[in-house]
Amino acid sequence: LLKILSGSKLRGGKLLEVTTASAGDSTSNPILFKADNMRLGTLFKLSGRSITKGSVMTITTGDGSALTCTSASECGTLLKVDGNHQTDGSLVKILATQMTNGAALKIKGGKENGVLLDVETMTTKALQGVVRIRANNLRTGHALNIEANGLTSGSAVKVKGSSALGENGNLVLIDGQYATEGTLLKIDAEKMENGV
């Protein structure tokens, strides 16, 4: 219904610009794509096949710093994926099967007491794990690698429980019941002179 074409000389200009001066409210949608009857295909697609160091999409607040949190779980967001009524599928999926360098997801930032990745669940039963890493084809290397070379008095890993832990509970469980060789837990402290 609408097609916009540009030549190869476009540099700082724009093919489409939408601006609003409204402060908006919780129901505002200056731009709305709606396809409630759609079953297959892709509603909104961005393609940037020749991109090298740029970005196919950038969401920015510029020099603004107005985002706030009213509680640990109620914060303003730059990107929100709302799938509260979904019971199956994936809300966000990243495909990077040919990647050999770089990272499929990279988070950089943080200041004192800042949290870069916060996972919260309301369930009381999680047999598959709230966070699950599957690397069943891995033969060498590490499924999880934590580096904290500047650490002095803190902890690279902290596991905290409470008095609710029962007789059959475990704060840390290493399951090697089918292992016939190797070491289930190895601590390498070859150059330690003090400490335990």
Structure description:
Helices cover 0% and strands 0% of the residues. The protein has 196 residues and is low in regular secondary structure. It has no helix or strand. The mean pLDDT is 89.
Task: Briefly say what this structure is.
The protein has 196 residues and is largely without helices or strands. It contains no helices and no strands. The chain is elongated and about 65 Å long.
Largest sheet: none
Fraction of residues in helix: under 10%
Distance between the termini: 71 Å
Mean pLDDT: 89
Oligomer: single chain
Shape: elongated
Q: Can you tell me the residue ranges where pLDDT is under 50 for at least 5 consecutive residues?
A: none
Number of separate helices = 0
Taking Cα atoms only, what radius of gyration do you get, to the nearest Å?
24 Å
Which class of secondary structure composition applies to the elements?
A: little secondary structure
Share of residues in strands: under 5%
In total, how many beta strands?
0
Supply the key terms.
elongated; 196 residues; little secondary structure
Strand-helix topology:
Elements: no helix or strand
